[in-house]
Design a protein that fits this description.
The complex is a heterodimer of chains A (198) and B (178). With 198 residues, chain A is an alpha+beta fold. Chain A contains six helices and seven strands; from the N terminus they run αβββααββαββαα. Chain A is globular, with a radius of gyration of 16 Å. In chain B, α4 links the parallel β6 and β7. The chains are: A alpha+beta (198), B alpha+beta (178).
Chain lengths: 198, 178
């Protein structure tokens, strides 16, 4: 069963890479950086806590509760906005409502893709909610998610996925958090995976 | 020297050092300052109240630190027993108790202490979350209960904040994206 999570991650990485490549018309490398169980407040800082980022947050409910968070550092968000809204590269220096909407749609696509695969492979019901957007410090955005999460559970199954947009090598990050106990209860043999990072 | 305080942690220091913490969203930063001794404490808290298992622990600490309480062998014993446990200072009530204890150990007097609150935002304005607001309300309740006056606050909204606290001057500097 633990291979199933790996299978989900691999399929999701391929699909996300294809979807982002289509949207931006350039190669996008996708790498599953980490899958582990850890204390929610101990999430590793992917980038500087004060770095400005665009954050797209999608709450997840259904058979398992969780959170999907897409993070684009400021420069990546600007470059992506130019590509998505078909502007001349280097035009965007401030995100408009249109840019925000386009970035939220990217969040919908990436998150929807992952959760659909997870739902199909594990035969569980997952509901993805509408995306919420914030452009602010990375630490402030992530801490909002983990604080909401910490009210329900001490530890989370954390999946970190990293995107690299070629050739410029701009990066983006996709974080998934699930309640560990729910995962364990539903998928007994996932305990093996969970224990590794505990 | 700047001492960085991470999420869920507490630091207490004296001049000339500063206490800093970055990227505060719905979390709440509580600073306590003794202007006479120039001692400062900063807590980067996450959640309002410790869960049931910490209730007893919280009660013991409050009891040992109440303004009227005189140090006694019994209260000292309680404090030692509590300090032997791992304190989960991501909770506001536990964090404030711990800050008071550490500051008093350094000679600070409860009646001289001044508190400031920073954070308690909701970073996603379209997402209905009361956690930031609850953090602020609970901190105010707790400080009132402990008899600590609040002299400043920069709370709420939907902005991230970074905080620098100088125990030399007592000044708390809050940085936002603007």
């Amino acid at each position: 069963m633990e291979n199933k999570l790996q299978e989900v991650n691999e399929q999701a990485a391929v699909n996300a890479s294809e979807a982002l490549s289509k949207l931006t018309d350039r190669p996008v490398e996708v790498e599953i950086s980490r899958t582990e169980v850890k204390k929610v407040e101990g999430l590793s800082p992917l980038i500087g806590l004060e770095e400005m980022v665009a954050g797209i947050y999608l709450p997840v409910t259904g058979d398992i509760n969780g959170a999907a968070l897409l993070i684009f550092p400021k420069e990546t968000a600007f470059v992506l906005s130019d590509l998505l809204v078909k502007r001349k590269p280097g035009t965007t220096h401030k995100l408009t409502e249109l840019d925000t909407s386009a970035l939220k749609e990217v969040g919908n696509i990436i998150s929807g893709n992952y959760l659909t695969i997870l739902s199909n492979v594990l035969q569980i019901k997952i509901i993805e909610h509408i995306p919420n957007f914030s452009f602010d410090m990375f630490g402030a955005i992530v801490s909002q998610i983990i604080t909401d999460f910490a009210q329900k559970t001490e530890k989370a199954l954390v999946i970190e996925i990293e995107f690299t947009f070629k050739p410029e090598t701009f990066k983006g990050y996709f974080l998934l958090l699930f309640e560990v106990e729910q995962f364990r209860a539903m998928l007994g043999s996932l305990v093996g995976v969970a224990a590794e990072g505990a | 020297m700047d001492i960085e305080v991470h999420i869920g942690e507490i630091e207490v220091t004296q001049r000339p050092h500063n206490l800093v913490t970055c990227g505060v969203g719905s979390c709440l930063v509580v600073t306590l300052y003794d202007p006479k001794l120039q001692i400062g404490a900063l807590a980067h808290t996450m959640l309002p109240l410790s869960p049931t298992q910490n209730t007893e622990h919280e009660t013991h600490l409050s009891g040992s630190l109440s303004p009227e309480a005189q140090p006694s062998q019994q209260t000292c014993l309680v404090a030692e027993q509590v300090s032997a446990k791992v304190k989960d200072t991501k909770y506001i009530d536990v964090a404030i108790d711990e800050m008071l204890q550490r500051m008093q150990t350094k000679g600070a007097k409860r009646e001289d202490l001044e508190a400031k609150l920073i954070g308690g935002a909701n970073m996603f304005s379209s997402f209905n979350s009361d956690i930031g607001k609850n953090n602020v309300l609970n901190a105010k309740d707790k400080l009132k209960k402990e008899g600590i006056k609040i002299v400043g606050e920069c709370v709420g909204g939907s902005q991230g904040r970074s905080v620098e606290f100088s125990p030399t001057t007592g000044v708390v500097t809050v940085k936002t994206k603007f």
